[in-house]
Amino acid sequence: MSTYQLVVKGCLVLENGAVTGELGINDGVIETISSDQGTLKGARTLDFGDAYIFPGLIDAHVHCYTNPEEGFINNTASAAAGGFTTILDMPYDSPDPITSAERFKDKVALLEKEAIVDVGLWATVAKGGAQQIVPLAEAGAIAFKLSTFEADPYRFPRIPDHEVLQALHLAGGTGLMVAFHAENGEIIGHMIEEYTKEGKVAPRAHMETRPPVSESIEVLKLMEMAYWTRAKLHIVHVSHPRTIELIGSFQRQGVQVTAETCYPYILKDVSDLEQLGTKAKMNPPLRDPEDAKRMWEYVKAGAFNMITSDHVPWDKSKKNAGKDNIFKAAPGLPGLEIMASLIFDRGVAKGEMTPVQYAQLLSQHPAELFGIEGKGRIAPGYDADFTVIDPRAHWVIDEQKFRTKAKITPFHGQKVQGKVIHTMIRGCTVYDGSEVVQKPGFGQFVAGSASTKK
């Protein structure tokens, strides 16, 4: 009998189901899977009993540098504690977005010094900067993110339609996905102006000035562009069931379009925005209760490719700026430390989602969509990246215990069933259930599929 460097035991969430078994691991890679306990011999053994061992979770939508005071150290520590072994970081860094190969390479160097979990990097383009797409792809970009809504003319610009077409053509040649923040700035800007004139600045106004049509109309336009360019299109943070219905219709026409939603859109609604104010402000906004229920039904039905956090670590001052006027508050929520447990609680613990579905939404599908080799499955030859969740553990979310400086969440005080008790990357423990035990620099850069460095 061979002796493995490490044997991990528990309820293994494999592609076809969850089975009690054990894994033989050498050099950070899974070599053997056994459905019989006690058949594998290890120099070291970790036995998690009846806890679920999921393939390492992947959050494809994280903003580490929207707040530059946070960066990779805090955010990847949060990821490790929340069960995420890989994160994909968005390119809208403050003060300078990732719009050139030079900026991209600088960020990779920083990642290699500071990251605790593995990190892939999104890239974006400036207005008039579509020619940077190929160099960014070759430098290792995991995908491209653009916006139809202008939050900032430099850091988060609206890219004109003719440049969107150019970007889709160029990105199509690299094989990489192009994702969009899809909201219509003309509709939203006009409505905010009118509401402000009328003194309608209470929290609910945030939803009312960003109606569902402001999302769906932009998604329709982008899907038609994807039809003609044959590019891979991805729609981030879908907030309304109408949008995913439209996406489904274009998928049936053969358009290469995928979609994600974020955990708040299926767990909260506009009543939480009204009650909690800036704590629950995000773009797009939380929707009506019935819409949130329908979104959850679409998640269970497999309409969404993945669930993401859209983790944005604003400090309280940015959120509190909108205390008396919701339009002045920064949009976005931290989520890396709570999303995995919240989705487990809502889905697996309540019997509305199988462990396999959970693994698909939070690990397998992101790995497949972004072409991340060796991740997303528990299978021989794959990295020994695992997220271990105790299905019987009950706990209460406490924002003051977050590792991020953004100690603010609309989920504060919520009771949750299902707790991350161990996070492992390449056979090494990064979170032991109470502490993050790896140092900055342990995490590795995850290069995109078009990288010339692979």
TrEMBL record:
Pfam families registered for this protein in UniProt: Amidohydro_1
Matching Gene3D superfamilies: Metal-dependent hydrolases, Urease, subunit C, domain 1
Domain spans labelled Amidohydrolase-related: 52-428
Top-level taxonomic group: Bacteria
Gene Ontology terms describing biological process: purine nucleobase catabolic process
Listed GO MF terms: allantoinase activity
PANTHER family: ALLANTOINASE
Protein name: Amidohydrolase-related domain-containing protein
Protein's organism: Paenibacillus beijingensis
Higher taxonomy: Bacteria, Bacillati, Bacillota, Bacilli, Bacillales
